[in-house]
Amino acid sequence: MTSQTTPSPAACKRRKPTRRGLLSLGLLALGTALAAPHRAHARSSKESDMTTHPYLGMWVTGDGHVRHQLLPNGRYDEARGSRESAYRGRYVIEGNHIEYVDDTGFTADGDFIDGVLHHGGMVLRRVAPTGTR
Fold it and tell me: Which pLDDT score is estimated for 49?
């Protein structure tokens, strides 16, 4: 009967990396490097599409308490009452659906229906920019 012992932590630290471990690490790094330009390109083309998107601008609840500013760079700034920039984060619009991810990681979504944004039980209407009609 052979007994197997677990190496000490110090012994584990002294081990040389195996070929398999190095190969796996190399493939992981290569895959990440190859995927990164594609993701960056996809992001930049989406951002350029957002510069003229019809849903950009300020969206406000009827009582003016909640205000969402959808910015052309894919970011949003939400004010609540007298608290400006209460929440900030990024958003993605696909068709008439919007997905929000705030800077803390909280997610939410909404839908644009007949020119109105329905989000989290609220109804927000777009406010025309100052100086335009």
Answer: 54
